[in-house]
Structure formats: structure tokens, C-alpha cells
Design brief:
Blueprint: H1 2-16, H2 25-45, H3 48-55, H4 57-65, H5 75-99, H6 102-107, H7 125-130
């Protein structure tokens, strides 16, 4: 699997060498190494969710002892495992919202580009968050 990651990263690096990019080779190498590190780390760390399920048999037994059904007790593991993953993703999303100034745009009740029927300030939540993502041209 790691060989596949290395092959794909080398292919991405070769693609970046195109004439359209005007970045220095130092920046390209830095971006390549960061991307490679993220790929290797995510591939290596992805097994921890499975380890969480296999190592948490005691949590399931305890949930059954407290009255959960045998089929419903393992759902507690989903809550524990996925919540911990959400923490990292939630922090990063919040960081990006603040860094790009989108949080201010969403929370501003005077923002007419996101207004519409459906909430107390006239801005439905879905349209507020829809304004977070920039439209690509």
C-alpha cells in the first residue's frame, strides 16, 4: 500500500513540473513532502478505527450490563470512535472558517447575500453554511 502512495506522489510531483506553475522548485518540493507526509500518516493511522472496535469489547459488555440490547450496545462504540475523529476535523474546519473570514460572513445578520426565509434573522442555516464554500469559476 505504501508503494502505491509513493507512486502516486511521484506522479503528482511530475505533474507539478508543468510550465504553467511559476513557483520555485523549493516551494514545490516542500508542498510535495507535506502531501507525501499526509498520505503516509493517513494511511498508517487509518487502522486505528478498527483497533478501537476490536479493543472495546469491555465497553460493549458494560453497555449491555447497564441495559442496552445486544444489538444496540456496539453503537456506543461508534459514538466514542467517531466523536474523537470529529474533534480534529471540527477544530480544523473552525480554523479555516476564521482564517478565511467566513465565520464573520456567516454570523453577520446584515449580510443580505445569504438572507432568506426560514429563521429568526431571515437567514436559513443551510444558506448560511452554503456561503462558506467559495464558488469556483
Amino acid at each position: 500500500m505504501l508503494v502505491g502512495v509513493v507512486i502516486c506522489s511521484v506522479a503528482g510531483r511530475e505533474r507539478e513540473r508543468g510550465p504553467a506553475l511559476e513557483r520555485s522548485s523549493e516551494l514545490r518540493l516542500r508542498g510535495f513532502l507535506i502531501g507525501l507526509a499526509i498520505c503516509v500518516a493517513s494511511g498508517t493511522l487509518s487502522c486505528f478505527m478498527n483497533l478501537g472496535f476490536t479493543s472495546a469489547a469491555e465497553v460493549t459488555r458494560r453497555a449491555e450490563a447497564l441495559g442496552a440490547s445486544a444489538t444496540g450496545a456496539p453503537n456506543l462504540l461508534w459514538l466514542i470512535i467517531m466523536s474523537s475523529g470529529f474533534v480534529a476535523n471540527g477544530i480544523y474546519c473552525g480554523y479555516l472558517l476564521v482564517k478565511k473570514g467566513k465565520l464573520r460572513k456567516i454570523s453577520n445578520p446584515q449580510n443580505t447575500s445569504l438572507s432568506g426565509p426560514g429563521s429568526s434573522d431571515g437567514t436559513p442555516v443551510g444558506r448560511k453554511f452554503g456561503g462558506v464554500w467559495e464558488r469556483r469559476k
